[in-house]
Amino acid sequence: MPETSCNAGVERATSAHPPEDDLVAIAWADTRLRFQVPIRYAEQLIDGVARDFQPVRYETFEELAAYCYGVASTVGLMSMHIIGFSGPEAIPYAIKLGVALQMTNILRDVGEDWRAGRLYLPLEDLARYGLSEEDVAAARVTTRWRSFMRFQIERNRRLYDEAMPGIALLNPDGRFAIAAAADLYRGILDEIERNDYDNFNRRAVVSTGRKLRMLPGVWWRSRY
Q1: Angle at Cα 152 formed by Cα 149 and Cα 157, nearest 5°?
Q2: pLDDT band at 52 (very low <50, low <70, confident <90, very high)
Q3: By CB neighbour count within 10 A (0-12 exposed, 13-18 middle, 19+ buried), where does 210 fall?
Q4: What global pTM score does this model have?
């Protein structure tokens, strides 16, 4: 993203008086001020999204998690102010849920991202399983790839497990929407497994029927 465009985006996202012809910016300014959403979250989101305009690689999971925070956790933190939450103790849960959701996107879209010239998988993890960028380019599901993906999915599920107690710290009216997003997204991990870890050529999707079967349980659990 050109620096001038990025700066313009930050200005519009943080201005209390955006241009009169920018209805989205006006609505956002009203929402941000009404619900006291910290400006730094919008700034961090723009910075995170700007990374996608560069050919970036992530050496470690910690580096990738920082990217996930920028493009996803920030959205959760801003949403949390609109929903309402108990206090600062809810923040770490929102951060973990954002990382978990974005990591699910990354694991689902490996092939699609590679064809777009992007690789978000931690290079350190790939090397640990004897894999490299060349293996991703070859788009073959091998024994090593399956082992690598099992590790990624297990870590991703732990993030969801660690994040879910934070749902109870949200105002009751907003719990179901967040819990549903988390559970339905987590279901994508099951679908990757059902596809035999072929996230090069098959996009893991939770069917409408399965979503409908999941939602009553999500609603019941989110009440408490």
Answers
A1: 125
A2: confident
A3: middle
A4: 0.90
